[in-house]
Design a protein that fits this description.
The protein is rod-shaped. The chain is 36% helix and 16% strand. The strands form two sheets. It has a two-stranded antiparallel ribbon with strand order 1-2. The protein has a two-stranded antiparallel sheet with strand order 3-4. Helix 2 packs across helix 3.
Length: 148
């Protein structure tokens, strides 16, 4: 058997109004039709519990955030440093060459390249060894090239 419970406001005896009306539930049968004036209360959404941190909790949270940020910064810096240091790594023998009038990076790389070695790879090595951003050279500039 099922029943429906609807809220009903009760009034004190004698017709006097209370400052705050009491609410009661009335059990009804299966064929009950509520009167048009009775409206069920709207369901409230569940309230999220409010988390309040003490001063010590706020301090611990701040220290943890600071340490996490510091660890990320150190890790990121180490990674960037390792990538940057790999750019200047060359394990072969090198020699210094003085750039003359009319010399190009391609010409110097072609002279320094071994038999069958791709000149483009040698150009990349020379640019990496000397930290060059472009292939422009200046007369009298000293550059390091891989030894043939």
């Amino acid at each position: 058997m099922s029943a429906l419970a609807i809220p009903v406001q009760s009034r004190p005896a004698g017709g006097a109004r209370a400052s705050r009306p009491a609410r009661h539930l009335q059990l009804v049968g299966p064929d009950f039709v509520p009167a048009s004036g009775v409206v069920a209360p709207a369901a409230r959404p569940a309230a999220r519990p409010v988390i309040r941190l003490s001063a010590r909790g706020r301090l611990v949270r701040g220290v943890l955030l600071l340490l996490t940020s510091l660890a990320l910064a150190v890790t990121g810096g180490a990674w960037v440093g390792s990538v940057a240091s790999e750019a200047g790594t060359y394990s072969g023998a090198v020699e210094r060459v003085s750039v003359g009038a009319g010399d190009t990076l391609w010409g110097i790389a072609a002279t320094a390249a071994d038999e069958g070695q791709d000149v483009r790879d040698v150009v990349d090595d020379i640019m990496r060894l000397n930290g060059l951003g472009s292939g422009e050279l200046v007369v009298g500039q000293q550059i390091v090239v891989p030894a043939p």
